[in-house]
Amino acid sequence: MGMLTPRLTWGWAGLILELGLLRWCGQFPGWAVGQVALVVLLLANVVWQFRQVAQSYRATPFFQRGWRVGLAWSGLLVSLVGLALPWGLWGLGSRFLVRLKLPAAWVNDISLYRHPLLGAVAVVYLVLVAYSLIWGPQHWRLTTVIGTPRQMLQGLGWLAGLMLSWGMMSGALVVGNWAVDQWLSPSGATAFALGSLSLILAGYTMASLLGTVTLIWCWCGQPAVAVPRMQRSRWSLGGLVLVWVVISGAVIVQAWQMPRFLATTVISHRGLDAGVGVQNTLGALRHTKRLHPQYVEMDLHETRDHRWVVLHDENLKTLAHRNVTPHQLTQAQLSGLTLRENGQRGRLVSWPKYLKTAERLHQPLLVELKTTPTDSRGMVRRFAHLYGARLRRDHSAVHSLDYRVVAQLRRVAPRLRVGFITPFNWVDPASVPADFYSFQQRSLSDQFILAAHRQGAATYLWTPDATTAMSRAWALGVDGQITDQAGRLQRVVAQRPNRVFWAIVANFTLSYI
């Protein structure tokens, strides 16, 4: 009951109110004055709440009370926010990241060199966890009673267990929604889904509060406070519940009313469907054309003689069993090489031949222009001059993981649709202007989709192949999906939306992770 004294209860209510309002305001673009004020108020309230908690401990010396406790807890708060960011930041992570504006060159460098950078970030993250949470009590010394590393590990274990229990409960509700969506009416499925969202948010709130209290107890022991009178305790608890109901209702209604189940552009990844044929070959293209996808996505690499072949990998070892790169051979030497994949055979094809075949089939292409350090100078400009107008006439488009390609193509061929491929979603799309974005699926949220739509850009998702992933993407409101299972995607988006209301519940759950 110590954590539910009237003084602390209203602090928890304030935190719930501010977190909920920030999530609700996160649907609006930019940094409004009200949003900035809410962030400042939230941080101040967290420091105040920590101070109240610290003062309720018998072991807290007098000289550490007041502003010194607030200052110390403020420093710890900065560490905790950084640690919580990869885990959703209480449902606010994507809402903050989508407002992060950086120079395009920085975004591009981080995207291109993401693997070593992610390794370095992981090391820094683990050091922060160890310093702030495991050995934190001994370093910060906020109280005279100091938790041991073993106690802190136990506290983290309890927190992980609580969140795991919440995740299992949420997963069960998603499965339950999937089951009832198959036979309930649209109104019945809606009611069941809204009830599930309420339970998921209630469970997350309880797990977060209990986990936070557990960590505090492991840090400096249980508080020495008098048990509040029952009448005052009831009023405080009632006020806390009322605040939660109001703010949670607003969050849930907003989540339900987001744009959902839009018309979906079907894009065949590497020209494949259901594993028939070898990727990026003419045989796969002809087979996939029977499904009439809006685009066939394929990849280009520059050759030694400054031409292009249709190939994804930077080395032919996997597909052709030859340890060479496209830059080591000419287009003529590469064309016709036998490729093997999944027990099937195909021929490596030159870009002019592939393009001519696609035009004969009246199949628009989504061309991924690959870059390597060995590319020739002027490669992008030469490609634009040779094929920009032709691709535009074919209603085709180009995208690339290298933003330098995107920016140059937009300058040289301004009427050609050009998009940027994101390996992960962590920055305002306006930092890297494009006609469309090919978002990576694992870290996508509706915030990035809304941000792209506000600047008039379409959003494609790569590479959902499972029915569940396709349904979740459809429920998020993406404009298209780049998939190896084009036929399956067509069947998914042909359903009545109320058959996949479970996907809204799943997306809501994942927004808090």
TrEMBL record:
Residues 264-493 form the GP-PDE domain. It holds the Pfam family GDPD. InterPro entries: GP_PDE_dom (IPR030395), PLC-like_Pdiesterase_TIM-brl (IPR017946). The chain crosses the membrane at residues 28-48, 69-92, 112-135, 156-180, 192-217, 237-256. One of its GO terms (molecular function) is phosphoric diester hydrolase activity. Keywords: Membrane, Transmembrane, Transmembrane helix. The keyword Ribonucleoprotein does not apply. One of its GO terms (biological process) is lipid metabolic process. This is Glycerophosphodiester phosphodiesterase.
